[in-house]
Amino acid sequence: MTSADPPSVRLVQLSAAAFTALAAGDLATADELSPVPLTGYFAGPDWASVWRRRAAQLTTQPGDAGWITRVIWDPTRRAAVGRAGFHGSPDGDGMVEIGYAVAPAWRRRGYARAAFEQLLSRARAEPAVRTVRVTISPTNTASQALALPYGFVLVGEQEDDEDGLELVYELATDQLRA
């Protein structure tokens, strides 16, 4: 892979038990439960709230398992480089929201874009999905540079309990390029 080639990634599903272990900072248990080896960053404080939220979600909404946060896995390097997925299955209006993050050591290598494109492809292929949403901090220019070229349109803003002010962007699935 040259620096110009996009990385090949696979989005790997985790169990509720793996999410719980990661939320508790228990890398050893999470590694035993994960289909791919994880790094300490996954079990660190930066992503703990995401893992807690996903573990709780699977308890109350087990049908979301196929939609929510997954490990971004680089099979060439055999490395877990980040997380990406939807916040849940499509809501009553057919909307799904994308979330993603790449561990600092793996940023600026195309992993977020590769995962984002897989999620967009999944949304486009699912008849129940009519709208894809992404929320981005106004100061997160990297995420804006990733999402906006796909045609996402600013539809509003919201205050997130953890992340503060977020701009809300949406795109109808019939506007997604193939």
Multimeric state: single chain
User: How far apart are the termini?
Assistant: 24 Å
Structural class: alpha+beta
Report Rg.
16 Å
Mean pLDDT: 94
Number of helices: 5
Structure explained in plain terms:
The protein is built from five helices and seven strands; from the N terminus they run βαααβββαβαββ. The chain is α+β, with helices and mostly antiparallel strands and 178 residues long. The chain has one domain (10-175): Gcn5-related N-acetyltransferase (GNAT) (Aminopeptidase), CATH 3.40.630.30. The protein has a seven-stranded mixed beta sheet, covered by helices on one side. Helix 1 (16-23) runs antiparallel to helix 2. The longest helix is centred in the middle third of the chain and has 15 residues, at 111-125. It is globular. The two termini are 24 Å apart. The model has no long low-confidence stretch (mean pLDDT 94).
Topology:
Elements: E1 10-13, H1 16-23, H2 27-33, H3 48-60, E2 70-74, E3 79-86, E4 95-102, H4 111-125, E5 131-136, H5 141-147, E6 153-160, E7 164-172
Parallel strand pairs: 4-5
Antiparallel strand pairs: 1-2, 2-3, 3-4, 5-7, 6-7
